[in-house]
């Protein structure tokens, strides 16, 4: 039997398999589970335990950003527009969201 705390987490947490690697994407704000208004701008953290990741990545998610705020010089279909798998995973829940890595180099 599964413990109640595992069926209904108190904090948002997702186990991810991205490009053949496993990681944890989590938040520290419990309101993200129950109050849709907190989904405008919020913070998530990603950790995969790989040697190249020296610290947990702190991500800021903005679900109300606009496409015209992106770099106008970049063609969305160009190879230079490739996004990290963790960003694409986040966009499966929050389509169109922008992800800021807050000074951490995005890893693929």
Automatic annotation (TrEMBL):
<protein>
    <recommendedName>
        <fullName>Ubiquitin carboxyl-terminal hydrolase MINDY</fullName>
        <ecNumber>3.4.19.12</ecNumber>
    </recommendedName>
</protein>
<feature type="domain" description="Deubiquitinating enzyme MINDY-3/4 conserved">
    <location>
        <begin position="2"/>
        <end position="103"/>
    </location>
</feature>
<dbReference type="GO" id="GO:0004843">
    <property type="term" value="F:cysteine-type deubiquitinase activity"/>
</dbReference>
<dbReference type="GO" id="GO:1990380">
    <property type="term" value="F:K48-linked deubiquitinase activity"/>
</dbReference>
<dbReference type="Pfam" id="PF13898">
    <property type="entry name" value="MINDY-3_4_CD"/>
</dbReference>
<dbReference type="GO" id="GO:0006508">
    <property type="term" value="P:proteolysis"/>
</dbReference>
<comment type="similarity">
    <text>Belongs to the MINDY deubiquitinase family. FAM188 subfamily.</text>
</comment>
<keyword id="KW-0645">Protease</keyword>
<dbReference type="GO" id="GO:0071108">
    <property type="term" value="P:protein K48-linked deubiquitination"/>
</dbReference>
<keyword id="KW-0833">Ubl conjugation pathway</keyword>
<comment type="function">
    <text>Hydrolase that can remove 'Lys-48'-linked conjugated ubiquitin from proteins.</text>
</comment>
<keyword id="KW-0788">Thiol protease</keyword>
<dbReference type="InterPro" id="IPR025257">
    <property type="entry name" value="MINDY-3/4_CD"/>
</dbReference>
<dbReference type="InterPro" id="IPR039785">
    <property type="entry name" value="MINY3/4"/>
</dbReference>
<keyword id="KW-0378">Hydrolase</keyword>
